[in-house]
Write a structure and sequence with these properties.
Blueprint: H1 11-17, E1 49-54, H2 61-70, E2 73-79, H3 84-97, E3 102-107, H4 118-131, E4 134-139, H5 142-145, H6 163-171, E5 175-178, H7 197-202, H8 215-228, E6 234-236, H9 246-255, E7 259-262, H10 267-270, H11 274-283, E8 288-289, H12 298-309, H13 336-350
Parallel strand pairs: 1-2, 2-3, 3-4, 4-5, 5-6, 6-7, 7-8
Helix pairs in contact: 4-6
The structure holds zinc ion (ZN).
Zinc ion (ZN) is lined by residues 53, 55, 79, 293.
């Protein structure tokens, strides 16, 4: 019988099994890619762009216009995060600055939710928003997740009490935008297995692993609303919450012809699955809206164009400061007829003249 101890060390086995235990701080790790691949900076988009999802409350319209003019943004939709008088003033400020270049979406105001006349209050608020030119009303992720009614119970997205608000929006020609749930990783514990660990460490309030409501449940509630209001036009921000699983996004769009999605803040997710994402854009070219959801800056927009227009490989994605995860993205080289719709025409179809 051969004795193992007599076999000399196999250098190959030693090489392929060596592991490092290092204590470089994750925050200090900043590797630089050594890949030499073609890079195409897209200075100007191939067609004029309508940014259907941004937040400009604290910006100066003149500064924003300078950015828009430098990088081909024809029109920008400000989703205010203010409510009431403050929101109206912001809408008016942008309208005065450049009526053709800006449009507005209001923010669902939960103030007074404990009141018995909350629905009527909300309908009146919608009227005020419409008078100030709002093109839509946005229901943020707090709906279903943290907003509570007078009894202290979580308000469900499909709570029948909200139904008249959706119907009223349609009457006023407004779209209803939903940002429901968040990336899958936000519903997982913030630990070493979480692919968005650094982002969540920077924003612990974005973690919902202890939420009493699951992501799937939130999205199911929302879909009941789509079904119940076939005459309402809905826009789901952030690929409807399905950017890690585009087959689910496709199913949602197939089942609900009254729904479109924007892909704001999700190019990092889409650009790491470029083959699947490209197919998705080709198939749903009429249902996808361009949105940035990042402070208006020329370089940010150019990264979006590079993602949509080029076949570049492994480049930085547009992002907020804490980034989304430690990966890079690939371009999806959309054809002109798709680009034209995603950049501009789909948004034009939703916007009404003011
Ligand atoms: Zn947003």
């Amino acid at each position: 019988m051969a004795e193992a101890s007599k076999i000399p060390e196999d250098k190959f086995v030693a090489m392929v099994t060596a592991k490092a235990e290092v204590d470089l701080r994750l925050s200090d790790f900043a590797p630089r890619s050594q890949q030499k691949v073609a890079a195409h900076v897209v200075q100007q988009p191939r067609f004029p762009v309508i940014d259907y999802h941004n937040h400009l409350d604290s910006c100066d319209p003149r500064d924003v216009l300078r950015v828009m003019d430098s990088c081909g943004i024809e029109k920008l939709i400000n989703i205010t995060m203010q409510t009431g008088q403050a929101a109206h003033e912001i809408f008016d400020r942008y309208h005065r600055a450049a009526p053709d270049r800006f449009a507005a979406i209001g923010w669902m105001d939960w103030t007074g939710i404990e009141r018995s006349d909350f629905v009527q209050l909300s309908l009146d608020r919608l009227d005020r928003l419409a008078e100030h030119g709002a093109q839509g009303i946005k229901f943020w992720k707090d709906c279903g997740l943290t907003v509570r009614d007078a009894s202290g119970a979580l308000l469900r997205i499909d709570d029948e009490r909200l139904a008249p608000i959706f119907e009223k929006a349609a009457e006023l020609g407004m779209t209803v935008m939903f940002h429901t749930a968040d990336p899958d990783a936000f519903f997982d514990p913030i630990d070493r297995f979480n692919e968005r660990y650094e982002e969540l460490a920077a924003h612990p309030e974005w973690g919902f692993s202890d939420s009493p409501v699951s992501k799937a449940e939130l999205l199911a509630q929302r879909e009941r609303v789509f079904k119940r209001h076939p005459n309402v036009t809905f826009v789901c921000a952030h690929v409807g919450g399905y950017s890690e699983n585009l087959s689910l996004a496709a199913g949602m769009l197939d089942r609900n012809p009254n729904v479109s999605v924007d892909f704001s803040a999700r190019s990092p997710e889409l650009g790491r699955q470029p083959y699947t994402a490209r197919e998705f854009f080709l198939k749903y070219a009429d249902r996808i809206l361009f949105g940035a959801d990042l402070l208006p800056e020329v370089e940010m927009y150019r990264l979006y164009y590079r993602f949509l227009e080029t076949a570049d490989e492994y480049f930085d994605y547009p992002t907020h400061a804490s980034r989304q995860g430690r990966w890079n993205i690939y371009g999806i080289f959309l054809p002109d007829d798709v680009l034209r719709r995603v950049y501009r025409e789909n948004a034009l179809n939703l916007l009404k003249p003011r």
